[in-house]
Amino acid sequence: MLTSQVFDTTGSPALVSVPNDSDGNEVYTYNFPFTTRAQWKARLPKETLPLPSPVPYVVIHHSYTPAACYYSEECCQSMRSMQNFHMNDRGWWDIGYHFAVGSDGTAYEGRGWGILGAHALHFNNVSVGICLIGDWTNAVPPVRQLKTAQALIAAGVDRGYIKSDYKLVGHRQVRQTECPGDALFKEIQNWKHYSPFPASVDDLPEVIQLGK
């Protein structure tokens, strides 16, 4: 069982229990707002596979669409929209990302810790994928969105899901795509663990691709 920190209507922090089957009865406390799959009314995954942890990479994405969301209800709808697109249109087992972060400063649980994602082909087996909801081609996400993304990564390190010496990359470094948008990609190059390698998909070694 996880315990994550959310904020009540007064702006004060409040604790909520978050089930996580991979951790047994261990209790965690997040220092940022967190919304579980149950809270955003996620569909059940068609299937899951474990992700070997800790992973050496974190991959940053933007959603492009849906657009940036600034309120909980709006962001929950964005999560359902992305999950439906990934499952119905792309035929994946679930929403592709491990987590998403809204412009409301809340982290939204996607596949979650310890589950193989479907966010970066040929790189899923060695990474956690975090999507910053919105189109960040021409504008940088709000500070609270960036801070929560960074805090979420730090939590993954603390929990043993991400290596302490992990490398942070943008989606475009491991896939032919403009994701995570020019502005956000430039921003994450200032983050402590950013790695310029791999510079493109051509730098990737052969990796056995599992799951969807």
From TrEMBL:
SS bond list: C69-C75
Keywords: Disulfide bond, Immunity, Innate immunity, Signal
GO biological process, one term: peptidoglycan catabolic process
Residues of the N-acetylmuramoyl-L-alanine amidase domain: 44-181
GO molecular function per UniProt: N-acetylmuramoyl-L-alanine amidase activity; peptidoglycan binding; zinc ion binding
Domain Peptidoglycan recognition protein family: 32-175
Gene3D superfamilies in alphabetical order: Peptidoglycan recognition protein-like (3.40.80.10)
Pfam entry (one): Amidase_2
Family of the protein in this entry: Belongs to the N-acetylmuramoyl-L-alanine amidase 2 family.
Quaternary organization: Monomer.
Record-linked PANTHER family: PEPTIDOGLYCAN RECOGNITION PROTEIN, PEPTIDOGLYCAN-RECOGNITION PROTEIN LB
Protein name: Peptidoglycan-recognition protein
Organism in which the protein naturally occurs: Euphydryas editha
